[in-house]
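EI: anyone free to look at a 185-residue chain?
SC: sure, send it
EI:
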Amino acid sequence: MAIDSLATFQSTFAALPLVETGVWTTNFSDWLDARVTAKAEIAEVTHAVTPFTFDKATFKSELDKLGVTNSRLDGATAFANAWRVAIDSSTFVTLAGDFVNPPPATSANTWSVVTSSIIDTSSKDTAEAQIITDIVNASNVLDPLNSDLPKILRDAFLNLTISITGLNSVAPTPAPLNVSGASLL
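SC: here you go
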């Protein structure tokens, strides 16, 4: 599986109810979570379970802190920061038994132990900066179907990379099995 298509991001975003109260943060967080959680994965690895969980509670909490800003740049920066804080606490899980592609799984390409499975900091930095730039440069539109925001957020997720370290399943002496900078799908 992979994160939702751009068309799905756009159509479901356009279908979000227009509200003036704080409920928008719940609706928006749920919308974004539904596009990526249990969907995002990486091409370089076959996982037993879909590994990505977006921390929508943190995202909502950060969105709740947003207020009126003096400039579009301030607003874009605050929004991108909310996304980044949520990404910093989101999880990407790799389990023993998952393997590096291409199939089939062999003892040399299958993890017996996973030491870490992390979203790379440099990719989070790049994605956050791109969100700011893209929001600042986005056109104002009346029809939410024409909004740049779904594309901006989808691209941010697709720009994240994952690094996984651990040991393979070669017996009797497992060797390091590492994947660095793998892209999200």
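EI: The helical segments are 6-14, 23-36, 56-64, 72-88, 121-137, 149-158.
SC: 👍
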